[in-house]
Amino acid sequence: MLLKCIVMMLIAHLVLVSAFSFEAWSQNNFQGTSQTYTQRGSFEPRFTIKSYRWDSPSHDGCCVRMCNNGNDVGYWCQSHSNSLPSSDFNKVVIGCNDEQLICT
After folding, report:
1. What's the mean pLDDT when you consider all of the chain?
2. Which pLDDT does position 4 carry in this prediction?
3. What CATH number is given to the structural domain containing 52?
4. How far apart are CA 30 and CA 52, in angstroms?
5. Reduced to 3 states, what is the DSSP secondary structure of residue 6?
6. Less CB within 10 Å around the terminal CB: N or C of the chain?
7. Angle, vertex CA 14, rays to CA 9 and CA 16, nearest 5
8. What are the residues whose beta carbons fall under 8 Å from the beta carbon of 92, sequence distance 6 or more?
9. Quick check: is 58 in a domain?
10. Residue pair 37/43 in contact by the 8 Å Cβ criterion
11. Residue 57: inside a domain, yes or no?
12. Is residue 84 part of a domain?
């Protein structure tokens, strides 16, 4: 019984970890080099992000902040994509619930 409970908790954790995704592209219109992030944390691809897609299930409590050289250039909790953002950026910070998403 204990083993079954542990397995169920592990499965639930894996589902929560992979519930959202942030896809970044090096060119407008979802072209060029791409990188996908499916975990919480701060990420800096080896390119300037010029288009993106944030996919987050409703009410999962997860959000993404987009940063350019330490400056906040965007923030989304609900799913959102942009093939031609008004500002390029070089870092994304992903967190859930009470985690603070800070550009540093």
Report:
1. 87
2. 55
3. 2.60.20.30
4. 7
5. helix
6. N
7. 95
8. 22, 24, 37, 42, 43, 49, 52, 64, 65, 66, 67
9. yes
10. yes
11. yes
12. yes
Identify the residue whose tokens are 């999962």: 60
| pLDDT tens per residue across span 12-30 | 444 445 589 999 999 999 9
Q: What is the dihedral of CA 85, 87, 88, 93, to 10 degrees?
A: -90
- Per-residue pLDDT reduced to its tens digit, 42-96: 999 999 999 999 999 878 999 999 999 999 999 999 999 999 999 999 999 999 9
The reply to whether 13 falls in a domain is no
Question: Which domain covers residue 53, as residue numbers?
Answer: 20-96
Structural domain total, the chain: 1
Closest-CA residue to 43 (of 18, 14, 65, 19): 65
